[in-house]
Amino acid sequence: MAPPTQRPSLLVIVGPTASGKSELALRVAKRYGGEIIAADSRTIYKGMDIGTAKPTSQQQAEVPHWGLNLVEPGQAYSAARFKEHALGKIDEITRRGRLPILVGGTGLYVDGVVFDFNFPPPPAFGERESLEKLSSKELQNLVEEKKYPMPENRHNRRHLVRVIERQGKQGEKQQMPKPGTLIIGLMPDEEQLKKRIATRAVEIFDKGVITETQKLSAKYGEKALLSTAGIVYKICLRLLRKEIDKDEAIWLFQTADWQYARRQRTWFKRNYHITWYPNSKQAYQAVTKILNT
RNA sequence: GCAGGGUUAGUGAAGCGGUCAAACACGGCAGACUGUAAAUCUGUUGGCAUUCGCCUUCGUAGGUUCGAAUCCUACACCCUGCA
Question: What is the spatial distance, in angstroms and rounded to an integer, between the CA atom of A292 and the C1' atom of B33?
Fold first, then answer.
């Protein structure tokens, strides 16, 4: 897809974890007076800084960041809530005459904004808890009884629950991205991405995720942490319980992060409106060309 | 040196004469996914053909048997007990 010829009103940067999205966003923001909105389902949590590779306080001081630290660990959040938040911020930033830059690896969050998903209503209070007590078979039966569309995969309990919660309603979306949107994708080749993930994992441990995990666990409890925390924290909890040692923890983190990156790749692959670049440098040059016109 | 246990696909680990290309777990690969998404789930995973099927695997080399990952012999390596 050819990039729009006029100056975009929204820049979106997507890609797998550790592909260099933040770096690119920061450079573009600094040069063109942009403000960053993180579309990331983990950096929304307060206190989860090191383990989520959240932009540092210095970076946040250089460029305004939004979408971070929205809720406490253990609290639920959703793609629908993110969409509202992001749209509000995009509006504010635009009105200030600055460039909104939506950056993230959470495909659902990004697409919700970009393709204007209309999310079916949330579950009624307490509904989820009772549905989750049912067996998969019972959930399937419920879906069939009510003639709701069966999720493509009938073994996916979570999707079954959701179909019931939204009373079989299908969400709608726009076929084309929001007008004026430029979507840049970062996709290093496999070997490079693996390397980046591996070295970043080591860095994250060097910076002290273990201590961070301890603090979070003390403040919010292991249960809250397990229910909302991302990849590293779960591994660090095992480390703190002495089930594994540090080297194993790093190894586990690297492979889990790679698996995550692949899921992200699968998600973004089907979006034909993304213009892909192998690294942030090349992407930056391309973006520069477009924004200078 | 003697006695015993072990060596199975990328890794761990079942199998102990036929229904074994070999359970299971992990890892790998492909995919799905609109109010949990760093989540959750599916398929696939020796090679070739991809319909019947064919070929090469279970430490190495021989042997027994209609038939062996499974039994026997020798060798190699690893672990344990006695020396």
Answer: 38
Q: Which nucleotide is nearest to A116 (CA to C1')?
A: B34
**Cα-atom radius of gyration of chain A, to the nearest Å?**
20
A231-240 and A209-220 are packed helices; what angle lies between their axes, rounded to 10 degrees? 90
Q: Which two tokens stand for residue A280?
A: 């942030």
Q: Which H helix or E strand runs over A65?
A: strand A65-66
Instruction: Name the nucleotide nearest A231; use CA and C1'.
Output: B38
- Do strands A275-277 and A181-186 pair parallel, antiparallel, or not at all (unpaired)? parallel
Contact positions of strand B to protein Cβ (< 7 A): 27-42
Reported ipTM exceeds the 0.85 cut = yes
How many Å apart are A226 CA and B43 C1'? 29
Residue A204 CA to residue A208 CA, distance in Å, equals 7
pLDDT digits (tens, 9 = 90+) for A151-197: 988 999 999 999 999 999 999 999 999 999 999 999 999 999 999 99
Whether the Cβ atoms of residue A65 and residue A38 lie closer than 8 Å to each other = yes
Q: How far apart are CA A212 and CA A46, in angstroms?
A: 12
Please, are residues A158 and A172 in contact by the beta-carbon 8 Å criterion?
no
Are A254 and A275 within 8 A, CB to CB? no
Using the structure, give the distance in angstroms from the CA atom of A243 to the C1' atom of B65, rounded to a whole number.
Answer: 49
> Could you write out the DSSP letters of every residue in A142-190?
HHHHTTPPPPSSTT-HHHHHHHHHTTTPPPB--SS--TTEEEEEE---H
CA A27 to each of CA A32, A62, A255, A281: distance values in angstroms, whole numbers, following the listed order: 9, 10, 29, 10
Residue A233, CA: closest nucleotide via C1'? B38
pLDDT single digits (tens) A206-251: 999 999 999 999 999 999 999 898 899 999 999 999 989 999 999 9
DSSP letter, residue A10: E
